[in-house]
Structures are given as C-alpha cells and as structure tokens.
Write a structure and sequence with these properties.
The protein is mainly alpha-helical. The chain is built from twelve helices and no strands.
Length: 225
Amino acid sequence: MSNLTNQVLERLDPSSIQAIAAQLGVDPAQAQAAIQQAVPLVVGGLARNAATDEGASAVHSAATAHSGMDIGSILGSVLGGAGGSGAGSILGDMLGGGGGAASGGTALPGGLDAGSILGSIFGGRQDQATQGLGQASGIGTQNAGQLLAILAPIVMSVLGSMSQRQGLNPGGLGGALAQENQRINQSGNGGLLGAVLDQDGDGQLGLGDLLKVGAEMLGGTRGRA
C-alpha cells in the first residue's frame, strides 16, 4: 500500500483546507498544520485497531463501505449543512455533543452514519484524542474534535479505495496499515498517537506525554513539504 497518510493529504486541496479553516475559525496555515497532525492520528488509530484478526476484519468492512465516496461530497455533508442546520450543528451531531460516538449522527453520501466513525477508531480514548490534538496543534479541544470528525470519513474513503484497488483481504489490509504505522512513527508524527494511548501508563493523557508529542512534532512537521 502506498503512503496512505500522504494520499489523504494530497486529496485536501487549498480550497478544502480553506473551507475547513473557516469552519474552525482559524487561518488556513494553522488548519493545514493541524490537519498534518490529525491525519496520522486517525491512520494510526486504524492501524492499532487492525492489529488483531477481528479488528482487521472490522476495519476492512468499514473501509469497503466507504470506498468510492467523493471527497467533495464528504466535505459538503459535514461542512455545507442540510436544511439550514449549518456545519456547526452537523458536526455537533457527529460528535454527539462530546466524547464517545454519536448515536444518530449525520448521514454521509450513501447513507452511512458519520457519527460512529470516530468512536470506532478511538473507542474510549476519543476524548484523549481530541484533547491531545487540540493541545499539540494549538487549535483547542473543540476544534480538534470537529477536525477529526471531518477527516475520519475522508481517511476511510481513501483507505477503502486503495484496499479495493489492490485487492487486499482483511489480513492484507491489517499488514498494510501496520507498515503505514511504522512510517508514521519513523517520520516523527507518531508521538500524538502514543500520547493518546498513554505512554506513561497511568491511564491519563498527562503533561509528560504531551511534552513527548511536542518534541516529535517539532522534528516531524518542519521537515514536511
């Protein structure tokens, strides 16, 4: 599997980043920097889920369901609003008003429920994921939650298309994601995922974890094109 993280980032053109920045209320440069941290977090979460046979089957099924979804349509669903409800309301529904997966979230193209995606990826650590991303990127926890909700279905769509194109079964997809996770760690972007999974083992995302994140992010993001 080619670099999934880069494939996702390449799909987000300047107009998409500008739209996301407007939703978050930040400038495009800050949004792009946060996206470069958030995408490896989502991909790494999927890789951790796919580390077991059962998890790999679940990720494979979810990726297949999202395969072929148009990125513009996904962004339109989560940013454009429906029936005048507005993007903020839609994203609030997706996040269920807080941590955990939403029940009855926003339907993506094809009738899929966007609300369950983040909960499926991070499980009980969704709050840690949004907190960690918010602090590491400087956009805050609420914006981080919105950003992850925007990006998760995009990552799933790209993963599904790549999996189908290469004819990967669940085991093959799990192995490919494991390789992708290694690339993330080698690039210096694995610190945030490690912090979400609690590097110090105390069950909470602590200052020591975030200091490790910051050190790795400073080394990793500066080297990006």
